[in-house]
Write the structure tokens for this entry.
Amino acid sequence: MMKYRYIFLFILTITFNTQVFALPQHSAVPGGVAIIDLNYHADVRPRVLYKDKPVMLHRGDNGWQAIVGIHLNTTPGKHSIKLKVPKKGDTTIHFKVESKKYAEQRLQIKNKRMVNPTQKDLKRIWKEVKLIRAAFTHWSEEYSIPAPFTQPTKGIRSSSFGLRRFFNGQARKPHSGMDIAAPEGAAVNAPATGKVVATGDYFFNGKTVFIDHGQGLVSMFSHLSKIHVTAGQEVTRGERVAEVGMTGRVTGSHLHWSVSLNNARVDPALFLSRSEQ
């Protein structure tokens, strides 16, 4: 009996470690995530900056690693992070960003204001940009990293991350999230534990929820029909936070899910388990 108890505890330990310390998939491209070995093994937690912004850290069996989000407009080539260790100064560590070509997508929007906003709309949009930026730059000192995310709603991925987008023939910013086609009212669940840092109803994004997962890792869910959480609320993986809708700039009912790491929108698929990618 004692033997089986130890086996059970061992399995629990493996499960716990997998949940706490699983990392996203390494993909050092614009819109991707770079996992960089720091060659630093001390117990003292270092600090790492990329473009003067703090980045996520993980301590693995082979020492500390930096998990860096790479912005979609990043120029491929040599980049660097700065390792800052108390009382030991700074060390520059280089890494390479490879090029990646994303496909194009052309959409027709019936509401012309969603393509060419009025001056009144623009005033509202600029106010909302500040609120959205504040949510994406929120930082909390969580030392664990969420296990692989779960897809927040069931459905077909209707628009891939990174697409070069054209609305009514006019070029716009690349698609910075994953679109999942789902019926209006379908549940939107937290992909991992975290805290709601903001909710709102924005011109382009419609009804939106932001969840901070720690260390600069933030999820955004947009075009919602209903929101079931409030700012400051802690949520667990799989907890319903909202419902799919078609608010804001949309062509149909779907969920737009963005993942931001050190204020860079990155491919959400990199954070899903391999079976969901």
Observations:
- Residues 2-21 form the longest helix (20 residues).
- Residues 1-21 have pLDDT under 50 and may be disordered.
- The chain has two domains: 2-97, 104-271.
- Residues 42 and 63 are 8 Å apart (CA to CA).
